[in-house]
Design a protein that fits this description.
The protein is 65% helix and 2% strand. The chain has 263 residues and is an all-alpha fold. The protein has a two-stranded parallel sheet. Strand 1, helix 1 and strand 2 form a beta-alpha-beta unit. It starts with a strand and ends in a 12-residue tail after the last helix.
Length: 263
């Protein structure tokens, strides 16, 4: 039952399940809209967070086993964690609700927070990142680095490119994580979401500065334009791969459940 906060009597308020403080029934719609937006924001953040964790653990462990040290250092991982936690929360959890949220079915108490659709994207993006990182780790320095480099410089430059590509993969996947449904237009409303835009641009700028001037503190070696382009090219693969995963979700309804999806 619903009671009015201004004109309702004390008896009616005590008997009500919901009290409308401003006596306006449209407030219920707004409350549902914002509630669903909070739920969707949590899902977006989890989708991004789980993908980063899987990839970071893999590259750190594999690199340590193969090269006796991880290509991504602890200080670099701290920067990745800052992107993964603070910046991702700011950019993914501050988007205003879209009216399309009201078109989706409500989520039940027993519905999983991480839906099957999300698992398809999490596993799919993790596979892409593992393939890219493995390629760069095992074959990269012999394919796209000059032969004139000494062996140590090839290792240092390649590790820096791996670090740069890894961060770019996360940033572009963060754009993918803005959508939880199967629609391909991941850029819808991105420029009106000013926090997301500022975080993305700021992260790219800081990442470039860390690569070029991080030096001993961040264990980075300055890259030339071609090396930057290669590592960024690997990172942007996350966008078309994300579109493929969305198409897979759309045309393979038996693979995923539509329950609990959101914009």
């Amino acid at each position: 039952e619903t009671g009015m906060g201004i004109t309702g009597t004390d008896v009616a308020k005590k008997a009500s399940d919901i009290i409308i403080l401003d006596d306006n029934f449209s407030s219920i719609v707004k409350a549902v809209l914002w509630g669903r937006n909070v739920y969707a924001s949590i899902q977006k953040f989890l989708q991004f967070q789980l993908t980063v964790n899987v990839s970071a653990i893999f590259i750190a462990f594999t690199g340590a086993v193969v090269n006796s040290e991880s290509p991504i250092t602890p200080v670099q991982l701290l920067w990745v964690n800052l992107i993964m936690d603070t910046f991702a929360a700011l950019s993914l959890a501050t988007e205003r609700p879209h009216p399309e949220l009201l078109l989706h079915q409500p989520n039940g108490k027993s519905d999983p927070l991480v839906t099957s659709r999300m698992w398809v994207r999490i596993v799919g993006q993790a596979i892409l990142q593992l393939v890219v990182m493995s390629f760069m780790l095992f074959a990269g320095k012999n394919l796209y680095l000059p032969e004139s480099y000494s062996n140590q410089k090839r290792i240092d430059v390649n590790n820096t490119m791996i670090f740069n590509a890894f961060v770019m993969l996360q940033l572009f996947n963060e754009i993918n994580c803005r959508r939880l449904d199967e629609k391909i237009n991941i850029l819808r409303g991105i420029f009106s979401h000013h926090t997301f835009t500022v975080v993305m641009i700021g992260t790219v700028i800081v990442q470039a500065l860390l690569v070029q001037y991080g030096g001993i503190a961040f264990s980075t070696t300055p890259l030339n334009v071609e090396q930057f382009a290669i590592s960024w090219g690997f990172g942007i693969l996350s966008i078309p791969w994300g579109m493929f995963l969305s198409t897979l979700v759309r045309f393979a309804p038996k693979l995923v459940s539509k329950k609990g999806s959101a914009v």
